[in-house]
Amino acid sequence: MATFSERMKALRKEKDITLEELSEILGTTKATLSRYENNLRIPNVDFIDELANFFNVSTDYLLGRTDIKNPSDEISNAVEDDPELIEFWNELKEREDLQLLFKQTKNLSPKDIKQIIRIIKAIEDEEDMLDQ
């Protein structure tokens, strides 16, 4: 697995931004970011969280604990063969009230993920019918 410094540098390069640009965006110095990328300094938890949010990746990915950038990507892959679930998932993944659920999928099989999305859809459908 990659290290934090390797992931940070790779994500910055993927976005095609310089250390200077990133420092302005995050309100820190270019020197501080350079130290992080060169593994000369360890960032605090708040910075790691801010960086993960900026790059739209999980903190686990940023810290090198997983190769899955974002738990929602894993769910998307699990439901990609079911058009109805894909459509529902695309609406669902924007909901902040379900973010914790997405983080919990990292140890589930695609089959289990698909089943959970189906259950959530059934609950949502039932609530929609009751509202009518």
From TrEMBL:
<feature type="domain" description="HTH cro/C1-type">
    <location>
        <begin position="8"/>
        <end position="62"/>
    </location>
</feature>
<feature type="coiled-coil region">
    <location>
        <begin position="1"/>
        <end position="39"/>
    </location>
</feature>
<dbReference type="GO" id="GO:0003677">
    <property type="term" value="F:DNA binding"/>
</dbReference>
<dbReference type="Pfam" id="PF01381">
    <property type="entry name" value="HTH_3"/>
</dbReference>
<keyword id="KW-0238">DNA-binding</keyword>
<protein>
    <submittedName>
        <fullName>Helix-turn-helix transcriptional regulator</fullName>
    </submittedName>
</protein>
<dbReference type="InterPro" id="IPR001387">
    <property type="entry name" value="Cro/C1-type_HTH"/>
</dbReference>
<dbReference type="InterPro" id="IPR010982">
    <property type="entry name" value="Lambda_DNA-bd_dom_sf"/>
</dbReference>
<keyword id="KW-0175">Coiled coil</keyword>
